[in-house]
Write a structure and sequence with these properties.
single chain; 482 residues; alpha/beta; UDP-N-acetylmuramoyl-L-alanine:D-glutamate ligase; Protein-Tyrosine Phosphatase, Chain A; six-stranded mixed sheet; 17 helices; globular
Length: 482
Amino acid sequence: MKLESLVSKLDVLEIKGDMSKDILAVNIDSRQIEKGHLFVAVKGTVADGHNYISKAIEQGAVAVVCEVMPEDVDENVTYIKVENSEQIVGQIATNFYGDPTSKLKLVGVTGTNGKTTIATVLYDMFRAMGHKAGLLSTVCNYIDGEAIPTEHTTPDPITLNKLLAQMVEAGCEYAFMEVSSHSVVQNRIGGLKFVGGLFTNITRDHLDYHKTFENYIKAKKQFFDNLPKGAFAVTNVDDKNGMVMVQNTKADVKTYSVQSPADFKAKIIECHFEGMYLDINGKEVGVQFIGKFNVSNLLAVYGAAVMLGKEPQEVLVALSKMKPVNGRFEALRSPSGYTAIVDYAHTPDALENVLNAIHGVLEGKQGKVITVCGCGGNRDKGKRPLMAQEAVKQSDKVILTSDNPRNEEPEDILKDMQDGLTAEQLAGVLTIVDRRQAIKTACMLAQPGDVILIAGKGHEDYQIIKGVKHHFDDKEEVRACF
């Protein structure tokens, strides 16, 4: 694409050099630059791209977008100065890849918990209905049926537009995407056109990045503020911030609830470890999901599908065939009669929801609940004592263990968790640093009818220790114990 047309709609402060150059690719990572590329220097949270302009030019960059003009300019390179390169990189990527979201229906899902389940079930459902669809999620990205591994909940704007352009090329009509708070604040979704947005809930998370809960709420709300007229916004009114999210949106607002009157309403008729019977807007349906939190997730799916023009009856039939997402409340039955549940719950609220769901199924039965959980390193330390408190509150036995310690000492993380407990509570808690041993111990303690919850990692098949990724899969460990 010609450089001139690539940046034609941007607010440019200054240009030095030839604007008629052909640009072969756009990058914000100097390590990926090759001959004929445009390098966008972004002031990131970890590194400032302006420090890598000379490296990008060495590797073949023919043009640079920056906020500060370098002192030494290369006469063979075109420099384009803008006020905020992070804000415009999404627009550049959208232009370069031919505005992919104008050619498919993109729906964004935001909130603390439930994003992956909702986006994935929507993707599975629309494919089951005969549509080609794409998925951008924490677990994996998919272009119709083809899996593309993922590193972040929301990729950078260039990767994002490239994936969306590949979806268009593959004939996808729909794309479903998790929208993280980071991606909103960092303008990773800049330039994308959404036909709809879903809000799940908001509880404490990512305060290591946002600093305050108010900032975290603002980041989520900004997504809905930016939805255009003609789009839809489906929000969870069981969350006290559900209506706050949509108070300034131009989109058509619809609500869903398990507790209050709403456009999309559900209640649980019956619940067991194989699934639930629900009443959704007056119609009964059997689903293969468990727990009140999953009723909310399925209601969001139902609401989005209806807003995308699907008949309610068709959506209910499709819902009954959907399976739980990898690592989200996955129940594994042991030959000796106890159940192990592997779940990604890594916030106090998510842990509370999963434990509530277990107790909902166990109601009136004799089984005990054994919870294995930890907290990630180099992340929000404030939630560590809260996680321990939540685990102890609803479990008969708790085993505190490592999650992804990253670059922290596992013992320090566990100490932070223990600080949330009284001396009496600590007496009933086991602390086993080695996650494999912790899972083994839980399985040894379990009796027929008991339930083990292994929380925190879900779909992840690795552990990060001292910055090194090691293979580790909770489900593999459980099956080995069986």
